[in-house]
Amino acid sequence: MFRIAICDDEYAFCSQMETIILENQNVFTEELEINVFYSGERLASFIQNEHDFDLIFLDIEMEGLNGLELGRKIREEMDNQTIQIVYVSGQKRYYKDLFDVRPMHFLSKPLETDKLIKDIKLAMKLNGCFSGVFSYQKAGQMHKLPIKDIIYFQSVNREIKIVTTTGTKLFYGKLREVKAQVEGHHFMQIHKSYLVNYEHVSTFKYDQTKMSNADCLPISQAKRKAIRALQMRYEVERMEG
Q1: For every residue of 74-106, which 3-state class applies, written as one string?
Q2: Angle at 22 between CA 18 and CA 24, to 5 degrees
Q3: InterPro entries, per this entry (predicted)?
Q4: Which of 89, 163, 193, 233 could form a disulfide with 60 if both were Cys (CB 3.0 to 4.6 A apart)?
């Protein structure tokens, strides 16, 4: 299921976009679910209540919480880097203001059907490339991170520290639950407190591993044999493609 949100305070425009998508849904490789919102506040509230989307068509010039503000809220406050955002506007003067939101594209009004369909297909393709996502809850909000960006997890008392290519995150949780969520993504538990992403391992030594960010982490004596076996398995899988 590919989830799309349309957010625009013009009812007629929302109806037009939804109709175009539904009339052309046979050209898409996934089943679509479409939700329409007539204000930025309603969409923000919906996402904050643990609902998620793969793609948002977001009008820039809405009353109240406008599209630029909502985009920044999604990226910064909600820390959601995986939703694809396509901005929609009748004005092109906003281009330079969009960079920090990292939108996938910009659509001009009036709508062009072929460009709309092309954007949905591109978002589906990108969603497939980044389908490996780790999700966690903090302060009542759902956060998502691309697994490929996670270097390692560390258990610190009752918290989990996520070390990524862009920084560090903290949330309350258990390492065994984290391990279950990333199963199948080449993670290794090298120590009771560390779960590392093999794709970010720079070098292995007998008693420690050096990660892509230069952090050196201990390999517990009890896990060394199992880690060597996992290393061999992952290398074989990598060579086999």
Answers
A1: HHHHCCECCCEEEEEECCCCCHHHCHHHCCCEE
A2: 120
A3: CheY-like_superfamily (IPR011006), LytR-like (IPR046947), LytTR_DNA-bd_dom (IPR007492), Sig_transdc_resp-reg_receiver (IPR001789)
A4: 89
